Amino acid sequence: MENTAPAPVAAPLLLTARLRLVAADEQLGGALAEFHERNRAHLAPWDPPTEPGFFTAAVQTRRLRDAAAAFAAGTGFRYLLQPIGDPSRVIGSINFSNVVRSAFQSCNLGYALDQEYEGQALMTEALRCAIAEMFSPRINLHRIQAAYRPENWRSAEVLKRLNFHDEGVCPDYLFIDGLWRVHRLVALLNKGFIAPAAWQTTA
Question: Cα dist. 168→90, 144, 146, 159, 164 in Å?
Fold first, then answer.
């Protein structure tokens, strides 16, 4: 079942009570590099291996340029988190990657938050807003999947608050922190998904 419609484009800026969610913008490459550098140890147990130069502004700028192209094509939607009133600082990111249309209409979710801002329900706030955009008629995804290491209790709590349902445990799911790691898979379904007109069949 092919999807020949133009790629949907998400809103480039989303706002919550405390946060700006800014679509991937290469001008924030330096701020994003600073985010990764100051959270290097904090995120290491949960992140996959990084490429050479990952913590530099040049690499982060290039990665944001690639993310912006995916955003425009509708194949991935990455947002950077900024405190309201401080558009020069990046304190986290949300990434809806591997968007597959056709009969799947699904994507993978990844996210990260500055250690300094944990414990304030900021990621729950940001994800609730971003997921609403992904499930809106503009993007109209049917399913969002996330995977987390069972010992990452903060991620487990965030996803539980957002009503992700458990889909089971996957051994050796991702190579993280030097080893293949077990992950728990969870997913959230869009109850308001709008089936494309081309899907309608006649008896």
Answer: 33, 15, 11, 14, 12
- In this structure, what CATH number is given to the domain that contains residue 191? 3.40.630.30
**Residue 57 within any structural domain of the chain:** yes
What is the C-alpha to C-alpha distance for residues 173 and 185, in angstroms, rounded to an integer? Answer: 10
Q: Measure the CA–CA gap between 95 and 43, rounded to whole angstroms.
A: 15
Give the structural domain span for 74.
13-198
Entry pTM: 0.92
Whether 146 and 134 have beta carbons less than 8 Å apart is answered as no
Q: What are phi and psi of 26, to 5 degrees?
A: -65, -20
User: How many angstroms from the chain centroid is the CA of residue 3?
Assistant: 23
How many domains is the chain partitioned into structurally?
1
In a domain, 121, yes or no: yes
Q: What are phi and psi of 170, to 5 degrees?
A: -115, 115
Band the pLDDT of 6: cuts 50, 70, 90. Answer: low
Banded pLDDT at 57 (limits 50, 70, 90): very high
The answer to whether residue 4 sits within a structural domain is: no
Quick: pLDDT tens for 71-123: 999 999 999 999 999 999 999 999 999 999 999 999 999 999 999 999 999 99
Q: What is the pLDDT of residues 154-171, one digit of tens each?
A: 999 999 999 999 999 999
pLDDT digits (tens, 9 = 90+) for 140-155: 999 999 999 999 999 9
Q: Would residue 76 count as lying in a domain?
A: yes
